[in-house]
Write a structure and sequence with these properties.
By secondary structure, this protein is α+β, with helices and mostly antiparallel strands. The protein contains five helices and three strands, in the order ααβααβαβ.
Length: about 120
């Protein structure tokens, strides 16, 4: 039997009907013990996601020398009245907000630090 070129094989395949192509694929699978499958994109390796806590606490360690600004920031974050916010600031170290997401804690921390407070997230 003469060896066929790639071009001759491609030309023969172009002339086949869908049913004939299906039969050809099945015959090749059986002959060579392979499975014809549509190419798929290789899955990218999954990087380990660093899992941190889902809830944290925002702790006011000290109010610094700008106590009034810190009281106002605490008021805005907690929704407390002026006197309650002042009591919280005066009792530092104290929890400003508990059971919040780390993202929310970072936002509040920025506001408190900008007001002059020393803050910790636990």
């Amino acid at each position: 039997m003469a060896k066929l070129t790639k071009e001759e094989i491609i030309s023969a395949v172009k002339e086949m009907s869908v049913v004939e192509l299906n039969d050809l694929v099945k015959a090749i699978e059986e002959e060579f013990g392979v499975t014809a499958a549509a190419p798929t994109a290789a899955a990218a390796p999954v990087e380990e996601v660093k899992k941190g806590p889902s809830e944290v606490a925002l702790i006011l360690k000290s109010c610094g020398d700008k106590k009034v600004a810190v009281i106002k920031a605490v008021q805005a974050i907690t929704g407390l009245g002026l006197m309650d916010a002042k009591k919280l600031v005066d009792s530092a170290p104290a929890t400003v907000k508990d059971h919040i997401s780390p993202v929310e804690a970072e936002e509040h921390k920025k506001a408190l630090v900008a007001a002059g407070a020393e803050v910790e997230i636990k």
